[in-house]
């Protein structure tokens, strides 16, 4: 086991966003329900939301393998949306309606502890997003949810998606810090493992309801990360912030 | 004369930083004085500050013409600092001391109306930096001065310096907006003219003391910009924010 990171060296925290900071699932279900009511359409919107979220990963992997040129998350979401609208037999939508629906991903509600927890942590550290979401999406959802950051960093700036190492290294370069001065915060182990591999500190935050009340989330016990936190308040305490 | 921009279309404002948001000159003079006291060195620190500011422009122009590879502002400031330390016969400094001095540019004080004005404008618009300063410098000085942005955009992300058009177009792309939905805010006409050339709206803010009490600043009357403001409070009012 590698030696634990020196917390006193940490200057900045980079946050995964979907699932870690915002509750994408219930937000997307809410938006789909509103859409359904406006259209008089009834469907399994929770299932639609889960398929929408799951659907973009294969396309993102194609970008990661170089089989697709750089394509941002808005565009990947739109491709999956078109497929799901067909699958669910929802027809006759105008471009404006589709675009509004696709931008549901710009209107995601933070977890109850996110805004206040970030505010505390920001008093002592530089806090930034480090998400696969494109920059404009991250700006919009931060404004929507009242989240305040010191800057917005995105995979888009690296032209690579997490967990490619280029994303973490680009963030370090832009922050003018060495990897050992940065801590990645995420509710997902693959993200943290990749960050750890390039020398970042790591903080796992438990978000047991990210995939809904019945889904199984990553198990926090015995994880090889520097901090294991219940939520952002707990993270702030453990950081001494 | 081109027709005035439709203000109701504006979604985001991009702010020049040095001189427009922060008072670099008195901040740098203050830092140099503190340095002088700690070293028992007396010098014309105002002159040193002015030469430091003026000195990086030729190097930046070399980057713009492709004669130098991309070099960030921290590095350009350091090159000029080394030259000035020699000119002022200041010798025997350690690397840490030089680096602390160079990072004076990360500790610049906002003009008195900047924090509050930005806060008002941010309630109605997306507000971001669009500066030749590197991203980490902008993050640091914003934290230092209590400036809150929706995101930090820098020439560094374009690999070009203002007034190259790539800087403005990269910002528009990252914000997911068309140039006509963005307004550039600056105390410098060349920046605004370049932004206007690619279709941005423009707001000139008067900062008569940027270059000191006796310097001549750009003249605001009859300028071909969409808004002419006395300061950020006036800008907020004219934007209806």
Q: What name does the CATH topology of the largest domain in chain A carry?
A: Rossmann fold
CATH homology superfamily of the largest domain in chain A: HAD superfamily/HAD-like
Helical fraction of chain A equals 40-55%
Number of strands of chain A: 6
CA-based shape of chain A: globular
Mean pLDDT of chain A: 94
Provide a descriptive summary of the structure in words.
- With 241 residues, chain A is an alpha/beta fold.
- The radius of gyration of chain A is 18 Å and the shape is globular.
- The first copy, chain A, has two domains: 7-23 and 108-238, HAD superfamily/HAD-like (Rossmann fold); 24-106, DNA polymerase, domain 1 (Orthogonal Bundle), CATH 1.10.150.240.
- In chain A, helix 5 runs parallel beside helix 9 (232-238).
- The longest helix of chain A is centred in the first third of the chain and has 20 residues, at 45-64.
- Chain A has helices spanning 24-39, 45-64, 73-87, 95-102, 114-124, 135-145, 165-175, 189-197, 232-238; strands at 12-15, 126-131, 151-154, 182-186, 201-205, 227-229.
- Chain A has a six-stranded parallel beta sheet, with helices on both faces.
- In chain A, helix 8 (189-197) links the parallel strand 4 and strand 5 (201-205).
- The interface between A and B is medium-sized, with 22 and 22 residues.
């Amino acid at each position: 086991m590698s030696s634990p990171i020196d917390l006193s060296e940490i200057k900045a925290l980079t946050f995964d966003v979907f699932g870690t900071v915002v509750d994408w699932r219930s937000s997307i279900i809410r938006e789909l329900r509103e859409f359904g009511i406006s259209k008089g359409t009834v469907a399994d919107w929770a299932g639609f939301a889960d398929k929408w979220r799951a659907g973009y990963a294969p396309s993102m992997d194609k970008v990661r393998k170089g089989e697709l040129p750089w394509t941002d998350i808005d565009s990947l979401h739109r491709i999956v949306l078109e497929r799901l609208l067909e699958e669910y037999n929802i027809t006759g939508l105008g471009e404006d309606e589709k675009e509004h629906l696709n931008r549901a991903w710009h209107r995601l509600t933070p977890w109850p502890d996110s805004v206040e927890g970030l505010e505390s942590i920001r008093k002592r550290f530089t806090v930034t997003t480090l998400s696969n979401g494109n920059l404009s999406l991250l700006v919009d959802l931060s404004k929507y949810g009242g989240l305040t950051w010191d800057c917005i960093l995105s995979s888009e700036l690296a032209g690579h998606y997490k967990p490619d190492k280029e994303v973490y290294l680009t963030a370090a370069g832009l922050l003018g810090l060495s990897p050992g001065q940065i801590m990645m915060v995420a509710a997902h182990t693959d993200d943290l493992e990749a960050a750890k591999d390039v020398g970042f500190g790591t903080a796992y935050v438990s978000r047991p309801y990210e995939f809904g009340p019945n889904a199984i989330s990553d198990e926090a016990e015995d994880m090889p990360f520097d901090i294991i936190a219940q939520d952002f308040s707990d993270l702030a305490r453990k950081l001494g912030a």
